Frizzled-4 (Oppiella nova), 685 residues
Amino acid sequence: MASSVIILVVCLHLMGSLVEGLEGRKSKCERITIPMCQDMPYNLTRMPNLMGHKDQSEAAIQVHEFIPLVEIGCSKNLKFFLCSLYAPMCTEQIDIPIPSCQSICEEVKSRCLPVLRQFNFNWPHMLNCSRLPVPKDGLCMEVPNITDSKAHKHHGSSSFLSPSPASSLPSKHTDIKGNTERESKDILNSIEKMYPFLFPQRRDDMTAQSSYNPSAKPSIHLDAFEMSYHLNTDNSYGGGNGKPSKSGSKCFSDFVYIPIAGQNFNQSQAVCAPKCGKDILFTRNDKNFVEIWMCIWASICFMSTLFTVLTFWIDCQRFRYPEKPIIFLSMCFCISSVAYLIRIYAGPEFVSCDRSDSGEDHITLEGLDNSGCIIVFLLLYYFGMAATMWWVCLTITWYLASVKKWAHEAIEAKASIFHLMSWATPAILTIIVLTLRHVDGDELTGLCYVGHHSPNALLYFVIIPLSVFSTIAVLVLIIGFISLARNRSDIRFDGHHNTNKLDRLMMRIGVFTTIYTLPALCVICCHIYEYMKSREWLEAALDRSRVCHDTNDVNACRLADSIPHKEVFVLKIFMSLVLGISTGIWVWSNKTWSSWTRFCQSTFGRRQRRNFKCPQVLHNTQYIQVQQQHLTPSSSVTSTAIVNVPHNQILRQQPYHHSYASIKSQRHSHRPHRKHRTNNSITNV
């Protein structure tokens, strides 16, 4: 129980962190530490910047990759423009960072884009000019009017940048087409030094007169390991050889160009992530239906499991091993159902969407930067795996009690092992998934889990663990039932020779096992089906996107029917939640009704006055049991009278015989009914 409390405390802490992150705190101005931007006309900046970087060290890594383009000299305002994005100006009078104006971006783009296009490079998406304000709509910076092109110190810590007219550009940059092959290669080499996610293409045998093909078709690569929407380099749909292509490559209209961490941590990959709100695999009607479906069954699961947990809380002594793991299993499903409710309440944009550097929302491929995605993943994955482990523990404790005839005290002594196994194993799997950055969003449900865009991650971290745990549980149950069938006549559960009670217990465990096993196996089958078909579904989605891109046909761009069969995912959601609902069956009994009745009467019932005529009066104060010996009038047989007297009244009374005489006199004055006048009777006064 202590471990369960710790888990709940951790969840509450994560929720608190989420709320704190949602509230947000106003960042303060800080001195610019990015080396490239330390000679700006201002010396204070604010984080996070317009590119989403949370600190200057992170921003410096990216902005310094533009140095080769700055050195080319296509625009003298390029450096000022870049620094205004990665280290925007800050003033204490305004709570937002101040970037450069949109006109500066357009000027830089008009001068530098021809240089990039000459070598088949497009304008970086994170430098989208439409994101920047214009002077009449918001605060922004114009280029300082300083004629000196050299660095000019200002206030001892910063310098102004001087604008450069077109005539001042080097001739080799104003007329790219006239360059020699050697000059073109020098420029290309400078550009290709830039950070891989800016310009991921690599070309070895490119010259100034070759390679730019405006009609080139974009392509997306289905990587062998990551089911991300990677940019292909051979202009085909998969099975690429990894060699560079001489044709341009960009994302389709329904995708966003973003960088993610590659398999090697010192490299990056350029991917096209699906935009949020776009119909890539599923139609809008199917998404709306699944949202209602999740809301209904998640609410039922939450209420059923919460009722089970509360029943255990008000009557802890009733639930002992071997049935006690059902309570922890129910608690895990109760917390997991909260993840669905968070998704319903907050919406898919809050949980499964991230924002790219260009300001467009896309389905998250690495959910470590989204606090909502992380919390939903932890609630679903960790507590889902923990529930499966507690199911294994339930089968083991049932086997020990029914077949090995262990008493509940002996099983209770092994409780620490069950807790360690059930909480530590999912924790290890969760840490591995987070380390490998396999948390991603789902287009259909809007949840964050494992394997939506990586079939191998789905196999290694979902299918295999669930299959192993379920196999162990089913084998233990089969062995246990076979043993019980062979030795049924010799089994004595808890030392009682009551075969009817044993039959009822076996029936309850058998029903619960059947109800739980079938949905668990069905969920595993749905995951296997998704693993086998995911590549086929994605190829069909990419084919549709290519046709839409080539033809611009409205009918081709509209997804009429979902590519996967939505019934499979609807069944998986239902079976996942009905597992939690099934745990409530265990407490649906008369004992539960009695427990809740006693709890409600003792908590919310009116305080009754003492009445010695009614021996069954309930009091909230502490009682002391006093045993007294007396002889009945008709016989010399000794009987015991248990007198319940409030503790505070006992303390006020003087000698013991006085209280006894008082009670005795009251007992004789209110003689019991004739049907209660029996020998060896126990009278409650």
Summary: The first strand starts at residue 30 and ends at 31. The first helix runs from residue 2 to 23.
